[in-house]
Amino acid sequence: MRIGRVVKVKADMKERYKQLHAKPWAEVTKAIHDCNIKNFSIYLKGELLFSYFEYIGDNYAQDMKALDELTKDWLKETDQCQEPVEGALEGELWSVMEEVFYQE
């Protein structure tokens, strides 16, 4: 399963966000791996952050719940740097994007 998501980075928090990801916490990178996520990338363009990852497990909802729990302290740091994009669902920070093309 391939997932693309988008969120806005707050202008005054852009450098903080980049600093956090320049040296991610070891427990965060371990949790990402342990929750069946591969090829995880985050890109920045202006005020938009785009993330892409591949999920290789068999229970996405369960693994994402576990990931949120394992990374809750990290998310306290990164979430304050972000705000939802226009059209985000209620309570949604990162908005899942529709895949419109794929070629292997």
What radius of gyration results from the CA coordinates?
Answer: 14 Å
Distance between the termini: 13 Å
Silhouette? globular
SSE pattern: EHHEEHHEE
Indicate the CATH class.
Alpha Beta
CATH superfamily: Dimeric alpha+beta barrel
> What proportion of the residues is helical, as a percent range?
25-40%
Please describe what this structure looks like:
The protein has helices at residues 14-22, 26-34, 60-70, 72-79, and strands spanning 2-9, 37-45, 48-55, 82-83, 95-96. The protein contains four helices and five strands. It is of the alpha+beta class and 104 residues long. It has a single domain, classed as Dimeric alpha+beta barrel (Alpha-Beta Plaits). Keywords: Isomerase.
